[in-house]
Specification:
Radius of gyration of chain A: 15 Å
CATH class of chain A: Mainly Alpha
Order of helices and strands of chain A: HHEHHEEH
Largest sheet of chain A: 3 strands, antiparallel
Mean pLDDT of chain A: 94
Strand content of chain A: 5-15%
Oligomer: homodimer
Number of strands of chain A: 3
CATH topology of chain A: Arc Repressor Mutant, subunit A
Number of helices of chain A: 5
Largest interface: A-B, 35 and 34 residues
Strand order of the largest sheet of chain A: 1-3-2
Distance between the termini of chain A: 27 Å
CATH architecture of chain A: Orthogonal Bundle
Number of domains of chain A: 1
Helix content of chain A: 55-70%
DNA sequence: TGAACATATGAACAACTGTTCATATATATA
DNA sequence: TATATATATGAACAGTTGTTCATATGTTCA
């Protein structure tokens, strides 16, 4: 079994917390294909803008999404290759 | 992008909740190699028996661990191939 | 049966989390 | 500058979660 720092598993738990909420995981899933603006995400998930912005901040702090501003609009996209793989594996699991 | 039932992402979030707590993820990690009794897990994680039992029940209900009784002792082990892969991917992510 | 040991479980409590509401900030344009 | 639009953020609140404590259940053996 691979050795690693004893804090690693705490960090792993922190990572998985991001995926442990259906709003955040649905946000991430909408970003699988392409970047989207905040308001586009709101429409897709049918949720209010404040709730989405709060969750986007959490995802950004965890470096799972990144954003860029274009005028008034802010576009978000996945910031990590692992995100796609981890969620895909989760989907695979529950679909069995 | 793969199509699936709209409830799937909610189920995925539920799945990841299991990995979103450091106690549970450390329990699962102790079971990577081999089955362990409840008291062995308590010693390894230096936590009291009640806390461990409560978390084991959560993991069992989610079908991530299984158990077998041998006299007074109950042994727990991983019940799902995906568990190993999902946690490994999480470890890989945070170690970069 | 009774004592000892291993594990499970319910209740209670503190800590944490996600959403809403109100409002602030940033940008574009008239 | 004033207004409209898009996004961000702080405070408050309800709901959820993990641990502890006390106790129950299950098993072995004397």
């Amino acid at each position: 079994m691979k050795k690693f720092n004893e804090n690693t598993l705490y960090d792993v738990a922190e990572l998985f917390k991001n995926f442990a909420d259906s709003t955040r995981i649905r946000i991430l899933y909408t970003l699988f294909n392409k970047e989207l603006s905040v308001s586009e995400i709101c429409e897709l998930l049918n949720m209010n803008q404040s709730a989405i912005s709060h969750q986007l901040r959490i995802l950004k702090n965890s470096k799972l999404v990144k954003n860029r501003r274009e005028g008034k609009t802010v576009y978000y996209s996945l910031d990590d290759d692992h995100v796609y793989n981890i969620i895909s594996q989760g989907i695979e699991h529950v679909e069995e």
